[in-house]
Design brief:
The chain is an alpha/beta fold. It folds into two domains: 4-65 and 361-388, Urease, subunit C, domain 1 (Roll); 68-352, Alpha-Beta Barrel (TIM Barrel). 33% of the residues lie in helices and 23% in strands. The chain is built from 14 helices and 15 strands. The chain has helices at 90-102, 106-122, 137-141, 184-196, 209-217, 221-228, 243-249, 267-276, 284-291, 297-302, 322-332, 338-344, 347-352, 380-388; strands spanning 4-8, 17-27, 30-40, 43-49, 57-58, 63-65, 68-73, 125-132, 147-154, 170-176, 201-205, 257-261, 279-282, 308-309, 369-373. The chain has an eight-stranded parallel sheet. Strands 1, 2, 3, 4, 5, 6 and 15 form a seven-stranded mixed sheet that branches. α3 links the parallel β8 and β9. α12 (338-344) crosses α14 (380-388). The longest helix is centred in the N-terminal third of the chain and has 17 residues, at 106-122. 47% of the residues are buried.
Length: 391
Amino acid sequence: MIMTSHVSSMKNNGNLKIHRAGWIIIDAHTIIDNGYIEVENGKINGVYKGRPKQKYFDHGPGVLMPPLVNAHLHLELSALKNMVPFNKKFRSWVQSLLEKRSALKEIDLIAAARKEARTLVQQGNLYIADISTLGIGQAILNGININGILFNEYLGSDTSLLFTQKTDTLSTSLAGHAPHSTSPSLLQWLKKESYAAQLPFSIHVAESDDETQFINDKKGSWADFLASRRIDFSSWDIGNKTPVAYIHKLGILGPSTLAVHMLNVSDKDIQIIANTKTKVCLCPRSNFNLHDKLPDIDALLKHSIAPALGTDSLASCDTLNILDEMEFIKKRYPNISDETLFCMGTLNGAKALGLDHLTGTLSQGKKAHFIYRSTNATNKKHLIERIVTNE
């Protein structure tokens, strides 16, 4: 049985601590056997071979590695696990999700989400980008030893609870739900405010056929759905565009923007993302469950785009563990190397959230956050393979 344990330097109280393991993954391409991590004041001093003179904590024959980064999830939907069928059309799935969520009390939504957040930490997902539409993200994550970005997400034209806060632990930023559900003026305002705060901006984009049709001609089932929700889109300047081209015209794209899903995209769309240096987060299991379709990861990599990974929510996916996402990708994308896949679940996520100065690798000067997996391996290649296949 493979066990994952969370190792944090937060309890070191400024004292020098040394951690040993059979393997240490500094990054996907830098791995040492029988290694030691020296930690002081919550940061990594260095990683080396050779038994130190000081006392050290021996984790065992397994591997110490960078924490997993879940760059897109909706913890507040955790209570909906197994309540919303995956095999509906996108609009029907959204309608069912909203109905099921509205039938639950806020206290129950928070309790289920906090349980899942603790599970994430136990599984080694120590950095996350949590999306909250209900404004309960702080209540969910309060007191839980998890890092990353809490995105308050906006639909329609509502700007209530608009605020940002940047910290080295859990920052608060802004997200537009999607180009087909958030007004263009609000999207531009949210991007402007998050950029001014030097924080990332997140948006779902090119996720569904309904979105693609609506952005192209303002018609279809999604137009009917917005009307039923009393969201007035009559003034939105859309039409004859793809979702990516539309938000590019609005000035939304750029290095501090995280485009989530990127499922229905053309090669021209991908080129726009590459040219603007926009970050990308993929949620393949959710895409497969809801749309019976997968993102073209090979095309993204061909354009030198380094995608991060997310899991979306338990309303569209079985688990929130990035290791499960990596295992899924490994089985369906034979051309992706294990090293690339490992980066997608660690360093790429850190870069997507603007946190690669703190985490993503076990390099000198980064936060001493790392996880231990009791994975047995015969060599470095075998080690990475066992991690991305979740063995």
